[in-house]
Amino acid sequence: MAGTKVYLFQGDDLVIPESMGDDEVLGGVDRYAADSAFGKPEYYAVPPAGVSERFAEGPLTACLLGGGAPLPPLWRRLPVRRILSFLAADGELPGSGSVNSRGSGQLLRAYHILQWRNDSAYCGSCGEKNGDSPDELARLCPRCGRIEYPRIAPAVIILVTDDVGRALLAHNRKFKDDLYSLIAGFAEAGESLEAAVRRELKEEAAIEVTDIRYVTSQSWPFPNSLMAGFTARYAGGELKPDGVEILDARWFTRESALPELPAPGSVSRYIIDRWLGASRILTAD
Fold first, then answer.
1. Model's pTM, two decimal places?
2. Using an 8 Å Cβ cutoff, are 138 and 147 in contact?
């Protein structure tokens, strides 16, 4: 197996040798080294997305390690989200196409699929232990025949600006202190993405918007989202955080002293930086 590359995940982290630099992780780690360190773990061959790519590239070999197991000496964890940050530092932006060309699309796909397979170990209808479909990327129950496909939850994230060019940034209760980002939320059943934009802003900030425009999208497998980024123009209502999801929301100008922003590599940061303009460079811890 020497020369074969694999991805190893544990929780929300990629597992790599201590000697491997962060900028080398997209190519995977040597399977022989992984087998020697982890006792030949159970791998899964994740097929690449799309029929044409499947024949051109072959499967992505990956493994999800036990969540609480300590790592052997000379191995370390690297948060998957941090990988997106250093890609952004190299000029790779969500939605540009260049991220996938460097392999991050493959890594995120493998991470997403392994998490889904772990969560779908048993049939949701009869409780039987699931197997894998021989014909497609799906879980197949050997007892009742129920088929389950990878879960993808569409979500919207929105930059709202007003008539004088200010942008709305908000502090979610899940954020660390002083971090502000864009208002976001999941699309509900029977709802278009544009309707989700209007509803989320009304529910969480008490405002109405118009001129909703799509910007870009990003796979966000934490655990299974697809983020669709939009811009919108403020149309009315008095800004008021709901106090449940959003604890604070404010209008900022480009000249404002801005709060801490999301890390580079996220679609939210990309849209915020797009609003700020290429001439203003911001850094985040």
1. 0.87
2. yes
